[in-house]
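Table 4 source record.
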Amino acid sequence: MALESFREHERSALHISTMTCWQSFKSTKTHGDVIEQLKTASAAEISERRQYLHLIVAATTFLGKQGIPFRGHDEQESSQNQGNFIECMKLLKQFDPFLQEYTPPSHTTYLSHFSQNEMITSISQEITESIIKQMKIAKMYSVMADEARDRCTEQLAVCVRFVTQQGVVRECFLGLRRLQGFDAKSIADEIEAMLQSHNLGDLLCVAQAYGGASVMSGAVGGVQARFRERHPEAVYVHCYAHELNLVLNSLVNHNKFIEIQKELGLRPSELVQLSTTRWACQVRSVNAVLNNLSAILACLSNMNTSMALGIRSKLCKTKTLYMLVMFSKLLGITEGLHRYLQGESLDLSKAVQYKTAVLQTLTELRTDSGGEDVFRRAMALCEANDIQLPVGPRQKQKRYDGFVVESACGSTSNLTTSDEFRQQLFYPCLDRMVEELTHRFSGLGEALMSGIHACNPTTETFLSEEALKSLASHYKIQLKPEELLVAKNMFPSLKALFQVALTIPVSSCSCERSFSALRRLHTWLRNTMGQDRLNDLAIMSIEKDNLNDINPDSIIDRFAQLKDKDTNIPVEQERLEDKRRRDDEGSEEEVKSRS
């Protein structure tokens, strides 16, 4: 009877509740009290969420670095392709045990478009902050800017050049700005706004580099003049480019072209499209035509169209072939300089030395033997393709009554001898190249250039006090003569002078490279992307080196700060916010072509 009463009491609610309390009390011996257990649970939750965010950072970093679109046109659960970002997370889940076990709360999956934008912004800001920290350690920099058409808008790319604490020259992309106006004031204001937004006002800007357009280079009202009003020490460096272009656009059937090459026993090769921005392609374009001339002529003959026959007629002229051979020789000499000038770590002194060597080579070509070599190669090419030298008197002037004539149509003489080709084609072209190269870096002034040369150990004026005075005076650096005597110890003023010489840019090629990234990112499939997202993705794509050095925990901390205001955002509100963002920035994944 007593046993039954005990068992009945054991089953009672009071006994069960009391035993539960007792077990909880005993657990405090090993797990701590209730408050400590709550803290432990919270810490475990935070650790799991950060581990989850680490994987999201990895997926976002990968897509951003490679310039791959994030979104898809259909991201429903039933979709076979939910976009690269979600598909990337699904792929990780297949191989990651943590993702297979972890189920994030429905309102904090961080997979929405809104969260994507915040994560991309967090990464971009971390990269930019890393660059700014290095610049502030350097205490001086140069700014480079260029603008390009991006569909219906004009984008301004701003890059900076500085010397790191380790003595390494760096050129970094700072960002894109959408231009509201195309005048010098608007562009200068945008550059200044970009610099001020990163709190660079206390640093010394030693130089500015832009293209040669008058709105940028104008000495009175141009961008460089307006920028120097705010930064007096910022000398202007003109980013020159050899724009010796040949007009040779042939619309040929590609398959027929390859077939004719095989018939003629030529090694199959492609013609190189002419470009006004990629300088090194000029000589490749010319050589491609010379190496495939017989195939081009045969292909044009087979096409039998008025345009093809007209192009063939131009190519079959001795004068045209002479010019092709001439440009192949001249541009071949400058090709190495073109490539060198596009490097990020080159300094002005070495660039001038390279230019001087090229200039000397071109000057030595201005001889009878130099012109005769070009003529001999051109005649061999003519003979191989059955092209005869023109004979006969001067061509008479033709009348074009009732027509609009865009070029001179007066009487011209045929060039028939080596001397005529040399005097009328080779020497004028060679003289123009020599003249342009002579004045290439003259914009800085002779005194400043002498100071920069004196910072180069390979020059005769290395550490010359007289040469360094003008450079030190311009940038308000107090030069101490005694330091020159013990230069190996690298006293502060000498170090500052060398740093200035290395910081001055030679070209603005970094801006051109950023436009190449812009064209890869802002395709017609992603043409509704917002400006902020475009800028952030451009920074991630261009600054890959800095991106690789960023600590993921720093990105997560910055992301958490952006998320603080939205921690308790309702699911429906987030869904509506996502829809609004999607409408603003559009789909970036490939869409089906409309028939």
